[in-house]
Design a protein that fits this description.
By secondary structure, the chain is mainly alpha-helical. The chain folds into 3 domains: 8-107, no CATH class; 110-162; 164-212, no CATH class. Helix content is 72%, strand content 0%. It contains 12 helices and no strands. Helix 1 (7-17) packs antiparallel against helix 2 (24-33).
């Protein structure tokens, strides 16, 4: 029984028929066609397309338009693929070795969503032991991104409970910066519209400086 193809897959195959099979553009489309089982290769190819701005040579005004029109991938998905691939290149280069990829099947290779969660964990600067545990969950156990994200959220929450002073300082910084933004905006609006006397505006400026000193 034939399985109905998606419109985006049909578009990819039609575009591939128009191109030289030895061209890099054809190669990217081939990766896109198979990216459910080989997202790393697509991420690698898209990284080259973006870095070298190859999409311009192919008649597209932007990378976003190229990914949507030519390979049927939304901007959000394309950027997540790029971030995940770059993270592997920087933090886990062994995963990208061709011989390593050839020895694994599609199930053994972590999903780009899971790798993206691991990337976020690295940026959160969680404890080394906690990060290694998440890394094991992703690369050795192949856990779903949603489950890994739950674990990351739990770790962050636990750290906040164990380090209340640090958490309080973070809340303070965020709140004070938000207050400063509001005060600066209101002060500017009052100055432009001359809504209050100059003396009050000077007092507002002094207040803003005092608050800035708290950061």
């Amino acid at each position: 029984m034939n399985v109905a193809k998606s419109k985006s897959l049909e578009n990819i195959e039609e575009k591939m028929q128009e191109l030289d099979q030895g061209s890099f553009r054809y190669h990217v489309l081939e990766n896109a066609k198979d990216f459910k089982s080989s997202w790393i290769e697509l991420g690698r190819s898209l990284y080259t397309v973006l870095k070298d701005k190859l999409y311009r040579d192919w008649g597209y005004g932007s990378f976003d338009i190229y990914t949507v029109k030519e390979i049927g991938i939304r901007k959000q998905t394309a950027m997540k693929l790029l971030r995940s691939y770059y993270f592997l290149e920087k933090e886990e280069p062994a995963i990208l070795k061709q011989e390593n990829m050839d020895s694994q099947n599609a199930v053994a290779i972590p999903t780009y969503e899971s790798v993206d969660v691991l990337r976020m964990a690295k940026n959160k600067k969680i404890g080394a032991e906690e990060y290694q545990d998440l890394k094991k969950q992703v690369f050795e156990k192949g856990r779903d991104a949603r489950e890994v994200k739950k674990d990351l959220t739990a770790i962050i929450r636990q750290r906040a409970e164990l380090e209340p002073e640090e958490a309080r300082e973070q809340r303070k910084t965020v709140t004070v910066r938000r207050l400063l933004g509001t005060l600066r905006s209101l002060k500017q609006e009052i100055e432009v519209g001359k809504l209050l006397p100059a003396g009050i505006i000077r007092e507002a400026e002094a207040l803003i400086k005092k608050i800035e000193a708290e950061l």
